Amino acid sequence: MTVESTTARKPRSGEPAKTAKGGQQGKSTRASGQRKAAASAKGAKATKGRAAKAGAVAVADEHPEDDLVQLLSPEGERIARPDYDDYVADLTPDTLRGLYRDMVLTRRFDGEATSLQRQGELGLWASLLGQEAAQIGSGRALDDDDYVFPTYREHGVAWCRGIDPVNLLGMFRGVNNGGWDPNSNNFHLYTIVIGSQTLHATGYAMGVAKDGAGSAVVAYFGDGATSQGDVAEAFTFSAVYNAPVVFFCQNNQWAISEPTERQTRVPLYQRARGYGFPGVRVDGNDVLACLAVTRAALEHARSGEGPMMVEAFTYRMGAHTTSDDPTKYRSDDEREAWAAKDPILRLRRYLEREGHADDAFFAALEQESETLGQHVRDTVRAMPDPDPMAIFDNVYADGSSQVDEERKAFAAYQASFDDGADAPAQGGE
Amino acid sequence: MSVQKLSLAKAVNESLRKALETDPKVVVMGEDVGKLGGVFRVTDGLQKDFGEERVIDTPLAESGIVGTAIGLALRGYRPVVEIQFDGFVFPAYDQIVTQLAKMHARSLGTVKMPVVIRIPYGGGIGAVEHHSESPEALFAHVAGLKIVSPSNASDAYWMMQQAIQTDDPVIFFEPKRRYWDRADVDTEAIPGPLHGAKVVREGTDLTLAAYGPMVKVCVEAAAAAAEEGKSLEVVDLRSMSPIDFDTLQASVERTRRLVVVHEAPVFYGSGAEIAARITERCFYHLEAPVLRVGGFHSPYPPARVEDEYLPGLDRVLDSVDRSLAY
Fold first, then answer.
1. Where does the Transketolase-like pyrimidine-binding domain start and stop, copy by copy (chain B) (predicted)?
2. How far apart are CA B299 and CA B307, in angstroms?
3. Which helix (H) or strand (E) holds B154?
4. Dihedrals φ, ψ of A321, to 5°?
5. How far off is chain B from A298, nearest CA to CA, in Å?
6. What is the fold, at CATH topology level, of the domain defined by B3-186?
7. B86 CB burial (10 A radius; 0-12, 13-18, 19+)
8. Which of A103, A256, A376, B83 gives A320 a disulfide partner, CB atoms 3.0 to 4.6 angstroms apart?
């Protein structure tokens, strides 16, 4: 029996049902306390030198630069670090230009995505502006058979893994919740729930160890995620099973509106020691240092020595997402201070200083950047909405009678709008 | 000899053993599952025979257990994880709901999640708080998960085999108060479909639908009712997601009355879903509204009064009488 007419009907709303796009309201923000004051109120005195190796634990993070591994100064001067120099000794002018190109193109893609959100083509965008060196440096340290578990901001790492950047935009446009096969580039899907992927990375690494494979796994996460229980559990499991995983934390100083002081009393890299594996803090705006430190950490993992944590000390130059308003909680001075440490400018200065790149290189790269921007704009605008019936696809790998029943009923309902259709309406038996 | 009389716990154990023997990608993991063999001894002897790489004692962290199982599944393994008790699953609820259940869909079908989560559940053993709950509806509400519960040793053996072979995440609720009930298990039989319901006692006057620990109560209620001249049919649903509504509908169309029985609270319980669906499917066949018997909208009570909270023979028959009175 049917409960409604079987003749063609018009939607009651007068318009096709369609989800409104864009315009997500920003999360509420609240002013944070004075960061410096909060730190110094504890009477902290940062330890000179590499605290992890010296065994000292700072109570707060007043002089983070003291702990940084840095190979390039903000002015683009090469700083000798005997413990890490070997890890970048193979770099040629060509590979250095390659790192520069990666960062420029990633920033360009990221900027295009922000613009596309402003134009209503994307519902949301999480910009990586300022974190290019952390992502390209670590991403270029990986071998093909290594596996990456990203957050939702790892656009630079995705670039290094060979993911078409346009694929990253599907979930932000609202046409899918993922959009790529994780196994084709050893790059897992973006993970939005904070810290969840660190456990997946650990389990994957446990499997790598079981298989006797010589590869490693990298889990990306942020400073806010370090407060999550899942991250603590990932540290525990990886340590207990000696899993070949690198925990790459991009400390960009802000978890939406909350400064790192709301997440920790000790420098984040020192957390690792409590779990029994090494942690190191690297200048996250120094692509050479990020490359060197990640290579060292991967070597550590691959050689059977278990997990390692890298804290890339960097800065989120933009908003948390396009829905956020950082003017509510942080100062322009702070942003300007970090702008002076810009990762791309830094490498450019080095390339120019060493004579590794000429005007023709930069001009050609600018042209390539324009082409990428055009590709991104054109492809996103042409990206079709999914077929509504795809809602029922891939809910289960082995199928489910419940999904089958609902798919059938919804198809009949949709068909009831067709002129001349003689389909049973929803609810028919 | 393929037919053995096994307790339900031993049947799960034998099923896990078979899976470990036949598929090198199967790993068993959880708290105390190794040397101890689990607090209910369901994994007894497995680590001894298959080693610490296959039968893994984990840190005491449920989210970590499920989260790393997801990672192992991404690597090609088929983890069977144990959550020690029903009330301890909630630290893992986030991983189960936000990650495990959605991974296949998020990957556009490219990634499969063959993870079995074993949870001893339900009351009736005089346990302390958090050791007697029935949270199946909290999982059945989530698309991407499959939820099953055997009521006897034979089903426990075969449903575990099938759950491990499933390419989707399966929450496998084990009725802990039936762990020690023994039944014939034919390890060479051809099992029915994992999500198919079974008529375990035929009758003509009313259908009792149950799963897991309540099937035994319903069969006993039907026997008691028979002495009063009432003929009750008992359907063992076996699966809470998906639910085999076709089998249940066929039964209700014959008997015209349905009472759903579960230990979980009635409010928003699986009985509500069953009542709604059967009412829609069988509206012109029903002689009475679908009734439900289950736990109350209260925390699971202290053990000394759990017999009042749990549906027993009398409460089931009381609802049978109410239904027949329409």
1. 6-181
2. 14
3. helix B153-165
4. -140, 180
5. 19
6. Rossmann fold (3.40.50)
7. buried
8. A256
Q: Quick check: ipTM above 0.90?
A: yes
Residue extents of the structural domains in chain B: 3-186, 198-324
Asked if the Cβ–Cβ distance from A179 to B94 is below 8 Å, we say: no
Taking one residue from A and the other from B, the number of pairs with CB-CB distance under 8 angstroms is: 145
Provide the residue ranges of all domains of chain A, joining segments of one domain with +: 51-381, 390-429
φ/ψ bin of A399: left (φ > 0), alpha (ψ from -120 to 50), beta (otherwise): left
A252-278 pLDDT, tens per residue?
999 999 999 999 999 999 999 999 999
Active site positions of A, annotated: 316, 320, 329
| Mean pLDDT within A317-330 | 95
pLDDT in tens, A217-246: 999 999 999 999 999 999 999 999 999 999
Half-sphere exposure of A405 (CA within 13 A, CB side): 14
Is A26 or A280 the better-scoring residue by pLDDT?
A280
Q: Does B102 sit within 8 Å of A203, measured CB to CB?
A: no
How many Å lie between the alpha carbon of A366 and the closest alpha carbon of chain B?
A: 34
**Confidence (pLDDT) at A424:** 53
The domain A51-381 is placed in CATH, from the list 3.40.50.970, 2.60.40.3500, 3.90.1300.10, 3.30.70.120, at: 3.40.50.970
- What CATH number does domain B198-324 carry, 3.40.50.920, 3.40.50.10420, 2.40.10.410, 2.60.120.280? 3.40.50.920
**Whole-angstrom Cα distance, residue A346 to residue B140?**
54
How far is residue A303 from each of residues A247, A334, A346, B67, measured CA to CA in Å? 16, 40, 32, 24
* A394 pLDDT higher than 70: yes
Inter-chain CB proximity B167 and A402 less than 8 Å = no
Q: Contact A401/B244, CB-based, under 8 Å?
A: yes
- Structure tokens given for B101: 């259940």
Q: Are the CB atoms for B320 and B230 separated by under 8 Å?
A: yes
> Alpha helices of A241-302 — where are they, by DSSP H?
271-275, 287-300
Closest-CA residue in chain B for A399? B168
Q: Which active-site residues of B does the annotation give?
A: 131
Q: How far is B5 from chain A (nearest CA, A)?
A: 32
Q: Is B77 on the interface with A (CB under 8 A)?
A: yes
| A200–B76 CB contact, under 8 Å | no
**Most A-contacting residue of B50, B107, B280 (CB-CB within 10 A), to test interface:** B107
Residues of A in contact with B74 (CB under 8 A): 182, 188, 200, 203-204, 207
Equal fold, B3-186 vs B198-324: yes
pLDDT of B287 over the 80 cut: yes
Q: Kindly state whether B67 is in contact with chain A, defined as any CB-CB distance less than 8 angstroms.
A: yes
Integer angstrom CA distances of residue A367 from A348, B110, B145: 17, 36, 49
Q: Using CA atoms, how far apart are residues B247 and B270, in angstroms rounded to an integer? A: 16
Grade residue A25 by pLDDT with cuts at 50, 70 and 90. very low
Does the structure show a pLDDT above 80 at A64? no
Using the Cβ of B243 and the Cβ atoms of chain A, whether some distance falls under 8 Å is answered with: yes
Contact B104/A396 with Cβ under 8 angstroms? yes
Look at residue A39 and tell me whether its pLDDT is greater than 90.
Answer: no
Does B102 touch chain A if contact means CB atoms closer than 8 Å? yes
CB-based contact, A207 to chain B, within 8 Å: yes
Place of tokens 């909630």: B90
What pLDDT does A401 receive? 97
**Which residues in chain B are contacts of A234 at CB distance < 8 A?**
64, 67
pTM, two decimal places: 0.91
B268 φψ region: left (φ > 0), alpha (ψ -120 to 50), beta (else): left
Q: Minimal Cα–Cα distance from B324 to chain A, Å? A: 27
Per-residue confidence at A418, pLDDT binned at 50, 70, 90?
Answer: confident
Do A189 and B104 lie within an 8 Å CB cutoff? no
